[in-house]
Design brief:
It contains 3 helices and 6 strands, in the order ββββαββαα. It is about 45% helix and about 25% strand. The two termini are about 35 Å apart. By secondary structure, it is of the alpha+beta class. The longest helix is centred in the C-terminal third of the chain and has 26 residues.
Length: about 130
């Protein structure tokens, strides 16, 4: 499989990535047949869990707690991802005008911070628990 990754990061302005994957096996002779197994939901869910674990490890090594959290944070603790604001809503939010999507993101960010704090508190109470 080949992945094409485009990372968009304009400072604090909505950093995100687009990841495109091949639908064909890559063989020594080039591209092979389509691999429809990659389209199955359970495969996607497993890949997402693996990607989430990798992100958590990388962020914790860099101590980047302010970065928007992934969908699942260790041990199945579900966190809410933020919505893409889009150009117009981003412009309004920068001017201090609240938008519906901005409000949703603020609520999700608050909830994720509360859940992260609860998890930290549990670790302090039992530091030997993973």
């Amino acid at each position: 499989m080949i992945a094409d990754v485009a990372i968009h990061n304009k400072g604090e302005e909505n950093p995100h990535a687009h990841i495109m994957l091949t639908t064909r096996n890559v063989t020594p002779d080039g591209f092979g047949l389509k691999n429809t197994d990659w389209n199955k939901k359970d495969v996607f869910v497993e890949w997402r869990k693996g990607w989430t674990r990798l992100i958590i490890v990388c962020l914790s090594k860099k101590d980047l707690r302010s970065v928007r959290p992934p969908l699942v944070c260790g041990a199945g603790h579900r966190l809410r991802t933020q919505l893409h604001l889009g150009f117009e809503a981003t412009k309004l939010e920068k001017r201090g005008i609240h938008t519906r999507r901005g409000d949703i993101n603020r609520e999700r960010q608050q909830r994720n911070q509360e859940r992260a704090a609860q998890k930290t508190q549990k670790k302090k109470q039992n530091p030997y628990r993973n």
